[in-house]
């Protein structure tokens, strides 16, 4: 291309100063050209420096971060050297910004209208009170808010996540900037909302001829939305060029791994446990089948949960979170419960675990009704049924060592003596492929993937037959996600485990599940084998979910 | 909002009866006969004593005494002190003084505490911040009577900038020095609280987004950092107003302020049930009202908090 780039980043280095004055580099010698009107995606896992790069461009690095070298050229001006006053003029007006998490990026104590009006005024788009208001309503209307005028007075908490992200996009594009930096603009949203938001973003930027820097960890999404791709790994660009070329023919080993791990539509079930279980797994399943007289590990019949939401001083309105849900899971198999947030899938999990009482319906574990179990029966059941939760940062007590964490279920159920428990902890660490040397460490010293392995080891400590995985891989980077899924699959085939896998991510479902139940607004709208759901979805809702998987239309290489 | 307010006011009813009953009982259960004590070193005249006991209903069982008192309260009669003065008169003469003192102290806390805390928080790790932290720590560790005596000695006696003791009517300007003394420890806490809160808010995503919109730093600080940081500070101030009312006793004593603290202390020593209970009840009521105001203020500061409809 003979055009001159709109934004040229040369040799950019960014570092974070730590106590003692040393500087830890986060971005090293990054070069990047952004052409007018083009969309460029920066892809990488967490900690790769992609967000740091985005923040460095508008000089909003968090904490002790600062640019340690290089130039960021916009219209012959070096942003790395610009004064705070000069940057104020560039932010919003020349470079718009759409942040990652719509929940935390609007100030909760000011109305949405106020926060838009403030942008309008700061960028000199209007000056009189009426004009500012008119322009703000226009911004919200363009963002896709119906009756924008009356929603001006509302507060962020009265908006859904998708709506808030629309507002943030509206704010980012309010002053018609030439560049828009979108930092993971949809990673916090449901997959269908994600699609709508990205379509909206694409439409708006195309209309205005805005160049976009899209920061994402999702290769599929990047391939679908961006012409140019920059792959970052440990603060450095490892590969860059046209998106499709990189995906079809990745050169760098890291990019190759990334492409392989991307759970696009083309991927298949890893290997079904029920059909190809190991001898030990088969024996475990057969033994359990015989002793309980049924091959059904979990049976849920007409399960309903109604919450009473306080609506006035003395009144409340019922909210049906789970509505007449029935499904069953064969021993040694995996059933995925899929749905958007608010679909009731996690409530089902909570009821199965006995953390929540059903309003109606029954849960049978190994043919035995859970409701009839006493306190002792419930404890015995918990021993056979263990959960793994979504957030490995929140689900491990930061003040307990890994050994203490994994051994806790053993202690609670009075299994073994101290030495035996320690031995079991080592055994479990081996099973989840963690080095024994981490036993004495604390969660803060581990990575997200390692923590999730610890959470899985804790769940397996009591040798359960059933594991309930509530969004167990959703918070992990794609490569780590692939490893954890593989681990779960291996453990299943080895021990004949039964999984209930709760997720919003259909791409992952295909890798791990035998059966899929699609939930929408508390109801199961479709239930079938994974193959069937993916190849011949019956319901429109399911089809909508499938279409929304980013990268669904892109053919991957490798 | 109205429903919520009504509910909160109704909640005050059991609190009112609970506290009055408890305090009345504690005064009743105090060892020693207050009437005998009145005679001091002189011999007790049984006839006079009997008469006094009947007049103050001290010859009645506990619950009768309590109900006579409560019945009177509802008719606006808070009983009489042993000196023959109606308790309502004592309340009317002392409470305004103490409330004035506490309000002054509160004002000083807000202006200095929030001001210094904000600057320290925005300049985290700089000289101003370090100094504010050290100075506030010193004030937190000093007992209030030390601060009071030092202030009285230097500012009033040596420098002559203020009167060492407060005169009868307790005018506003004479209350400034006692109010500053009363406020010092809380100011130190508020500096630290505001500072921590400002640092936390400065690191939030919405502050970064505010900058990304092209807003100037002063505007971001004023609009996005300060208001959000004030929410925990308001809680502290509310609790502190109650503490100031009660805790003024020492300061009032040193500066000779004719307020609640001194009077209440005397009444407790003499075992004057009606006086003690009336004072404490009024304090409890003020406390309840202040807390209600603060909870409503929350809703104004933070729109996510809405109480019913």
From TrEMBL, chain A:
GO BP of this protein: peptide transport; transmembrane transport
InterPro entries noted in UniProt: AAA+_ATPase, ABC_transp_ATP-bind, ABC_transporter-like_ATP-bd, ABC_transporter-like_CS, Oligopep_ABC_C, P-loop_NTPase
Ranges where the ABC transporter domain occurs: 7-259, 298-546
Keywords: ATP-binding, Nucleotide-binding, Transport
GO molecular function, one term: ATP hydrolysis activity
Pfam families (alphabetical): ABC_tran (PF00005), oligo_HPY (PF08352)
Stated name of the protein: Unannotated protein
Species name: freshwater metagenome
UniProtKB/TrEMBL annotation, chain B:
Keyword Transport: yes
One GO CC term, this protein: plasma membrane
Coiled-coil features, chain-numbered ranges: none
Compartments where found: Cell membrane
Spans traversing the lipid bilayer: 12-30, 101-120, 132-155, 175-193, 229-255, 275-301
Ranges where the ABC transmembrane type-1 domain occurs: 95-298
An annotated GO BP: transmembrane transport
Membrane topology category: Multi-pass membrane protein
PANTHER family hit by this protein: DIPEPTIDE TRANSPORT SYSTEM PERMEASE PROTEIN DPPB-RELATED (PTHR43163), DIPEPTIDE-TRANSPORT INTEGRAL MEMBRANE PROTEIN ABC TRANSPORTER DPPB-RELATED (PTHR43163:SF7)
Protein name: Unannotated protein
Lineage: unclassified sequences, metagenomes, ecological metagenomes
């Amino acid at each position: 291309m003979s055009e001159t780039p709109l934004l040229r980043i040369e040799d950019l280095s960014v570092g974070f100063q730590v106590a003692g004055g040393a500087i830890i580099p986060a971005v090293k010698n990054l070069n990047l050209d952004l052409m007018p009107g083009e969309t460029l995606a920066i892809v990488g896992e967490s900690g790769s420096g992609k967000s740091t790069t985005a923040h460095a461009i508008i000089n909003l690095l968090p904490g002790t971060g600062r640019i340690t070298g290089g130039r960021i050229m916009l219209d012959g001006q070096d942003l790395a050297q610009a004064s705070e006053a000069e940057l104020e003029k560039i932010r919003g007006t020349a470079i718009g910004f759409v942040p990652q998490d719509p929940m935390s990026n609007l100030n909760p104590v000011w109305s949405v209208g106020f926060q838009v009006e403030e942008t309008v005024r700061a960028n000199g788009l209007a000056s009189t009170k009426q004009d500012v208001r008119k322009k703000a309503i226009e911004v919200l209307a363009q963002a896709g808010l119906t009756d924008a005028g009356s929603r001006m007075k509302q507060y962020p908490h009265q908006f859904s996540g998708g709506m808030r992200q629309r507002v943030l996009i509206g704010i980012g594009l309010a002053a018609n900037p030439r560049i828009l930096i979108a930092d993971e603009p949809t990673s916090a949203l449901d997959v269908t909302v994600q699609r709508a938001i990205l379509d909206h973003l694409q439409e708006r930027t195309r209309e205005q001829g805005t160049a976009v820097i899209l920061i994402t960890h999702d290769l599929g999404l990047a391939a679908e939305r961006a012409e140019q791709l920059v792959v970052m790994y440990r603060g450095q660009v490892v590969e860059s060029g046209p998106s499709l070329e990189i995906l079809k023919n990745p050169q760098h080993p890291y990019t190759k791994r990334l492409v392989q791990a991307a759970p696009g539509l083309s991927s298949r079930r890893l290997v079904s446990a029920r059909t190809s279980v190991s001898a030990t797994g088969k024996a475990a399943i057969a033994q359990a089948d015989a002793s309980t007289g049924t091959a059904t590990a979990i049976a849920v019949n007409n399960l309903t949960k109604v919450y009473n939401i306080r609506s006035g001083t003395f009144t409340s309105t019922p909210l049906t979170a789970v509505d007449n849900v029935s499904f069953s899971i064969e021993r040694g198999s995996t059933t995925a419960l899929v749905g958007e947030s608010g679909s009731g899938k996690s409530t089902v999990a909570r009821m199965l675990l006995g953390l929540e009482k059903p309003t109606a319906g029954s849960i049978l574990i190994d043919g035995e009704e859970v409701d009839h179990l006493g306190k002792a029966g419930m404890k015995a059941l918990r021993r056979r049924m263990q959960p793994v939760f979504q957030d490995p940062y929140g689900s491990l007590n930061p003040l307990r060592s890994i050994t203490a964490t994994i051994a806790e279920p053993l202690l609670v159920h009075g299994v073994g003596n101290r030495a035996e428990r320690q031995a079991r902890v080592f055994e479990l660490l081996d099973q989840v492929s963690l080095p024994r040397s981490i036993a004495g460490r604390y969660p803060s010293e581990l990575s997200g993937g390692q923590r999730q392995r610890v959470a899985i080891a804790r769940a397996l400590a009591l040798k359960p037959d059933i594991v309930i995985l509530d969004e167990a891989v959703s918070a992990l980077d794609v490569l780590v996600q692939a490893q954890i899924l593989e681990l779960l699959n291996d453990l299943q085939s080895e021990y004949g485990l039964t999984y209930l896998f709760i997720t919003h991510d259909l791409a992952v479902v295909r890798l791990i599940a035998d059966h899929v139940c699609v939930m929408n607004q508390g109801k199961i709208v479709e239930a079938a084998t994974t193959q069937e759901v993916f190849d011949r979805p019956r319901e429109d809702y399911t089809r909508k979910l499938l279409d929304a998987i980013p990268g669904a239309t892109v053919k991957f290489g490798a | 909002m109205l429903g919520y307010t009504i509910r909160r006011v109704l909640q005050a009813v059991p609190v009112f009866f609970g506290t009055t009953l408890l305090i009345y009982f504690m005064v009743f259960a105090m060892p020693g006969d207050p009437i005998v004590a009145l005679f001091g070193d002189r011999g007790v005249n049984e006839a006079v004593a009997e008469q006094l006991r009947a007049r103050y209903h001290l010859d009645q069982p506990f619950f009768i005494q309590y109900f006579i008192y409560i019945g009177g309260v509802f008719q606006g009669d808070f009983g009489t002190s042993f000196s023959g003065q109606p308790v309502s008169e004592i309340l009317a003469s002392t409470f305004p003084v103490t409330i004035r003192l506490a309000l002054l102290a509160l004002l000083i806390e807000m202006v200095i505490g929030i001001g210094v805390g904000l600057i320290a928080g925005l300049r985290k790790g700089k000289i101003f911040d370090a100094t504010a932290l050290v100075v506030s720590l010193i004030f937190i560790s000093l007992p209030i009577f030390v601060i009071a005596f030092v202030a009285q000695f230097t500012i009033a006696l040596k420098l002559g900038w203020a009167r060492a003791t407060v005169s009868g009517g307790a005018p506003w300007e004479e209350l400034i020095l006692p109010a500053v003394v009363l406020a010092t420890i809380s100011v130190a806490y508020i500096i630290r609280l505001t500072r921590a809160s400002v640092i936390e808010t400065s690191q939030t995503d919405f502050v970064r987004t505010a900058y990304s919109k092209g807003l100037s730093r002063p505007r971001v600080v004023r609009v996005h950092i300060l208001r959000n940081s004030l929410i925990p500070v308001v809680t502290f101030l509310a609790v502190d107003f109650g503490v100031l009312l009660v805790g003024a006793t020492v300061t009032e004593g040193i500066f000779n302020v004719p307020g609640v603290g001194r009077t209440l202390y005397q009444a407790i020593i003499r075992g004057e049930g009606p006086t003690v209970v009336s004072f404490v009840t009024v304090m409890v009521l003020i406390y309840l009202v202040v807390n209600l105001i603060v909870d409503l203020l929350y809703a104004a500061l933070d729109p996510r908090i809405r109480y019913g409809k």
